[in-house]
Amino acid sequence: MLDSDEGGFHLRACSKSSFAESELDLILARCRDLIIQFQGALYKKIQELDLLTSSDKNILSTLNEDMPPAEHAFVHELVAQQARLTPNNEAICSWDGSLTYKELDQKAVGLAKHLIQCGVTVRSWVPLLFQKSKWHIVSVLAVMKTGAAFVSLDVTMPIGRIANILKQLDNIPLALTSADQHQKFHGIVDSVVIFDEKLTTIDVPEIILPTPGVENSIRYDQPVYIIFTSGSTGIPKGAMIEHSNLTTEIKALNQELKSTPDVRSFQLNMLNFDFCISEIFCPLLCGGCVCIPSEWSRFNDIPGAMESLNANFISLSPTLLSTMSVMDFPKLKTILLSGERVWKDLSDLWMDAGKRVLHMYGPTECTVACCFLDTCIKAHYTGLIGNPYASKFWIVDPLNSDKLQSIGAPGEILIEGPTVGRGYLGDPERTKEIFIAPPAWFSSICQRRPSRFYKTGDLGKLTKHGDYEIVGRKDSQIKVRGWRVEVLEIEHQMRLASGFGAAIEVRNPTLAPGQDQLVAFLELQKARDHESTTADVDVLWEEMKSNETKFSKMIEQVESRLRDVLPTYMIPSAYIPIRTFPMTNIFKLNRRKLKEVANKLDISAIRNSMSGILDK
């Protein structure tokens, strides 16, 4: 309520039942500031109004004024330091043998000297192509000790993709690979070194490894590795990460994880995936052990591999975790979820079994991750990602990063801090677009010097409790018949209503304007381990026909909930039962496969054959 009072005004809330007191204070302060702005300029456009109140600015200043410092150290030197502290402790327990810390460091030094003999220099790029093995980690450390940067490739990569990646690198003295993979470099790299354990025992006293602080030697701000992700143009884009980025990230993440020497980390992720970086270095920097399964075990028997390696820590996606049974993992203590939004019932299931369930969020370009949530400590819900570490978050207008969003308002997440990487290799335009200069508002909020900024493309908001929440992606806000639709919201509501996995795709096989249809996929069974990474999408037509009444009742239940909470344009046109969700080779939901199935469907024929069951 607005009351005039000698040219001033008072704002009073009519009801406090729907809002917390802190929320009311923000709302009232925002209204007061807007009215003042209108008084000063009645003809201002709405988009020209400053929605940030003085209270908003104070909160943001308090949250973001103190930036965690960058670590000026090298991860490979910290591993060597650990080797001096605990030389006989197990550093690697792999399907192909174990290594103590002393053995790991000595073999990495020997291999590094051989690589230098073969022409590897500071600031070279060294591609690595191995199956999962203890020798991959030895090779990674060896490359780091030479002052070069490693480029881990995956054995499942087509040769054409390997070629597209390596032709972007301008200084490749050699590639290092196992004997069973070397032919993939034929015609792509001039020199290929086939790994042999004998190479790790070379002792050449006259070869001195690069030392920090010496001219033309290794520096904290030079690349330590590069990871190539899918590019919108079809050409892989390489995200460069510097030594200081990596050291800052691993030390900070270990603090969040509360890592101890007892940790035995199961190396599940692909070697060219950024979460593999933390799987390797988090345990090695705290005196723990990296547990490496064979490629076969990784795809076919995760429980058996973890049991045999005595692993107690695993990092994986929520989609993959949902396929697993709690009873199969008696030794598992900690689960680190990443790569996708975590739904509450999944984390609750594993916490009820006595497991510690954590969630980390962050893009490849920002060195593995930068936001952390311990669901065992903090009340959580689907979409919550917790608090930043080794970085600061800002929420900005998705269309204009020079405009800050107010507290509680959704917008694009900007990440600022010492874990933000160098940019994209050989793509200055894309780097300038995504790794942006300090926005115009920065100096009005913080007195400190700005760090690097990265535009994530993720939509999020700062909650009233000071946590951050993901609400979607800029590119997952699709348009269906002119309406803006957030598919993650529909999937969340479907999952709550059905108890099954749910995924939404847009069907428009002819790409005709106005013909888009939302197709809902319901996962009626769960894949065991990784069987759905290669399997085709198995639509359960016959099972659905034989259980027509049961399926119809389930759809009615799902749609009833959707109609209660979503507008009509967000209701799917069809509901398709499938056996298991397809997953990518990094164990995330393979939406491309689902879209292919959706575009092949004849919705009219489905409706007719099912006697109207799917006619929703």
UniProtKB/TrEMBL annotation:
GO terms for molecular function: ligase activity; phosphopantetheine binding. GO terms for cellular component: cytoplasm. It comes from the Eukaryota. One of its GO terms (biological process) is amino acid activation for nonribosomal peptide biosynthetic process. Residues 80-425 form the AMP-dependent synthetase/ligase domain. PROSITE patterns: AMP_BINDING (PS00455). This is Acetyl-CoA synthetase-like protein. The keyword Repressor does not apply. Keywords: Ligase, Phosphopantetheine, Phosphoprotein. The lineage of its organism: Eukaryota, Fungi, Dikarya, Ascomycota, Pezizomycotina.
